[in-house]
Structure formats: structure tokens, C-alpha cells
């Protein structure tokens, strides 16, 4: 028997506000098709809301009106979730895998999101100096992620990288890459305390 879908947590309505119906539709689509389309693992259904959707949605308040590039969007995490939560921000979802790009385009159409474009590319091929902020989640270790994300930012732009409990250790392991890519004011922001069972850690830093 397939595992049960996690019921919607109370925090979802507070995080998505009047966009909650869109968040519900996206979560339901991911629950229905995510495994068969190779977007999420078979064990993710019982934690789809908390571990994935809300883990991304709590990052919404860190974004500023402007242009955000989401590197390695995959199923739409965090890019599509944030595009639902923040209709005042323009998103470019940067993803190289064709079947994931197809999924992302389908969801943008289904949900009627007019603040999202999908770019089939590796971050290395995406236009440089284009974004005010760049997000990424579960793409690679910071020392490999910095050289492919920092060049996408305009001067003074910001990295907003979702990371696990090892965020601080990743910063220490990436000292050389951070310096070489002019990344400054690096901090770990902890989000979702008292709301999520597992908090979201974000490495936030400025490039100049
Ligand atoms: C483990 S998945 C994570 C997907 C999603 N961000 C999430 O949190 O579920 C990593 C994604 O990064 C993409 N990816 C890997 N290398 C990349 C690169 N150099 N540029 C852009 N995307 C990349 C992969 O195609 C894949 O969709």
C-alpha cells in the first residue's frame, strides 16, 4: 500500500495567506505525480508538507521584490513554492533536466503563475549578473555551489541557499571559493522555529 499523504499542517495557511489554494494544488500534484515522474522519493509523501513545501515557504520573507534565479529547481523546490508565496517577485527556474523542465512548465501553466519563467540550462550556462537574489536547495555542497551561483548575481546581489544542519561547516569548507567569488557578510539564518519540526537553515550572503 502506498504511504499516506501528510495532512496539511496548520502553519500552511499562515505562510501562504491568500495563496493557500495554489499551494494546495501544487502539493497535491506533487503527491499524485512526484514519484512516477522521478521528482520525489517514495518515502516523501508522509512529510511532503513539512519537509518540502513549508521548508521552502518559510524562506519567502527573505526575498525582496526583484528578480530571483532558482538554481536546480527539480520538482519546483524552492522556486515554485516561493513563486506561489511571493507573487511580487519574478522567478527564473534554472534546471537542465528535460523531464523536470517539462514538469515545471506544466505546473506554471496549471497554476497560472505569471511571475515565473523556466530556463532549461545548467547554472554555468545561465546569463551572468542577472539576478538580485539566487536560491538553491539540495544541489551541491557550498564550495561547489558558490562558483556556479555567485556569477549569476548583479553587484550587491544576495545568495539565499537552503542548507541542512551542516551549514556552518560548509561555510568553513568553502573559504577559498567564497573569497574568490567576492562573497561577503555570510550568515546562517534559522527559519521556521516553533513552526516546523525541522528548522530551515539558509546561508545568506552578499556578492560584491
Ligand atoms: C537533488 S535535486 C534537488 C531539486 C530541488 N532543488 C529540491 O530541493 O528538491 C538537484 C537538482 O539540481 C539540478 N542540477 C544539478 N546540477 C546543476 C547545475 N549545474 N545547474 C543547474 N541545475 C543543476 C539537477 O538536475 C536536479 O534537478
TrEMBL record:
Protein name, UniProt field: Ribosomal RNA small subunit methyltransferase G
UniProt KW Cytoplasm keyword: yes
CDD domains: AdoMet_MTases
Broad class of the protein's primary localization: cytoplasm
Keyword S-adenosyl-L-methionine found: yes
Coiled-coil parts of chain: none
UniProt subcellular location: Cytoplasm
Amino acid at each position: 500500500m502506498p504511504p499516506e499523504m501528510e495532512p496539511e499542517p496548520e502553519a500552511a495557511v499562515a505562510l501562504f495567506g491568500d495563496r493557500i489554494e495554489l499551494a494546495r494544488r501544487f502539493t497535491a500534484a506533487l503527491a499524485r505525480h512526484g514519484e512516477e515522474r522521478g521528482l520525489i522519493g517514495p518515502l516523501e509523501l508522509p512529510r511532503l508538507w513539512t519537509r518540502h513545501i513549508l521548508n521552502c515557504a518559510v524562506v519567502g520573507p527573505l526575498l525582496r521584490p526583484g528578480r530571483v534565479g532558482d538554481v536546480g529547481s527539480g520538482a519546483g523546490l524552492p522556486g515554485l513554492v516561493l513563486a506561489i508565496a511571493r507573487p511580487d517577485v519574478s522567478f527564473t527556474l534554472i534546471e537542465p533536466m528535460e523531464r523536470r523542465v517539462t514538469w515545471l512548465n506544466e505546473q506554471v501553466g496549471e497554476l497560472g503563475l505569471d511571475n515565473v519563467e523556466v530556463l532549461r540550462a545548467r547554472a554555468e550556462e545561465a546569463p551572468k549578473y542577472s539576478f538580485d537574489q539566487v536560491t538553491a536547495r539540495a544541489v551541491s555542497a557550498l564550495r561547489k555551489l558558490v562558483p556556479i551561483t555567485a556569477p549569476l548575481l548583479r553587484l550587491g546581489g544576495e545568495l539565499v541557499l537552503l542548507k541542512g544542519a551542516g551549514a556552518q561547516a560548509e561555510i568553513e569548507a568553502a573559504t577559498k571559493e567564497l573569497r574568490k567569488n567576492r562573497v561577503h557578510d555570510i550568515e546562517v539564518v534559522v527559519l521556521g522555529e516553533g513552526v516546523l519540526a525541522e528548522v530551515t537553515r539558509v546561508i545568506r550572503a552578499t556578492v560584491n
